[in-house]
Amino acid sequence: MGTEERNVILADMATMDFGFGFPETDITLIVEGNKFHVNRAVLSHHSPVFNAMLNGHFKESSEKEIVLEDCKAEHFKEFLKSLYPNMKQSVNEQNVLQVLPLAHKYQSPLVTDCEDFMKTLCQPGTGIRISTLLDYILAAEKFNLGQFLESAVKFCARVDFDLLNGKKYSRISQRFGNTQYTKSIDKDVQKKFLQLSIETQFSIAKKRLKFLEMYKKKRDNSDSVESDFEIPLS
């Protein structure tokens, strides 16, 4: 993102008022110097963390402006747009990894929305890429999204294991009846796969083996067989 484009986004955020359709905004949250004018009751209703912060015995409960650390203004904007009922922006591929960490941090029901969205992409024909899939799995491990991990492991079992590791083989020529291939490696994808927990890697490998065994039995019996899912690397 260029400096000019970022400045436009931040300028837009600085004037955003999330109180439309609700009682007058009564508190301002400051993230990276950008002010978000919001309503205590709305935040408290959708987040037990905000509820404790704004209505408990913390010093923030009596303040009109609160600085929030450890988050990016652009991400917080997406979180609020997905949280506020009068906006209710759907979680999508562009914002899910921005919304999820904040939803987890503030214990918002949006965690479930993020998990449900990611699960819908764990099937053929959705256009998901290996790189994005691995990003989702890493996030699911970090935030304990068990249902998504289960869906992702089943999906990955139908993807070539070399492809999950960032390796791609392309047929370049055929000489004297022998097909020749060239191998390329997507180092970014390979790095992400190696960052997966050993438990997740093992679960994928185990289900992959079961699928290949079933594939072999069906082929030996001349039954119809299902091929691997073909999805792009990145």
Explain this structure.
The structure is a single chain. The chain has 234 residues and is of the alpha+beta class. It has two domains: 1-110, Potassium Channel Kv1.1, Chain A; 121-218, no CATH class. The protein contains eleven helices and five strands; from the N terminus they run αββααβααααααββαα. Strands 2-1-3 form a three-stranded mixed β-sheet. α7 (130-142) packs antiparallel against α8 (146-156) and α7 packs parallel to α10 (187-195). It is elongated. The relative contact order is 0.08. Mean pLDDT is 84; it is low at 1-15 and 19-23.
What's the topology here?
Elements: H1 3-14, E1 27-31, E2 34-38, H2 40-46, H3 48-55, E3 65-67, H4 73-83, H5 96-105, H6 110-120, H7 130-142, H8 146-156, H9 161-164, E4 167-175, E5 178-185, H10 187-195, H11 198-220
Parallel strand pairs: 1-3
Antiparallel strand pairs: 1-2, 4-5
- How many structural domains are formed by the residues? 2
The secondary structure category is alpha+beta
The CATH superfamily of the largest domain is known as Potassium Channel Kv1.1, Chain A
The general outline is elongated
Order of helices and strands: HEEHHEHHHHHHEEHH
The whole-angstrom Rg is: 23 Å
Protein name: Speckle-type POZ protein-like isoform X1
InterPro entries: BTB/POZ_dom, SKP1/BTB/POZ_sf
Organism: Crassostrea virginica (Eastern oyster)
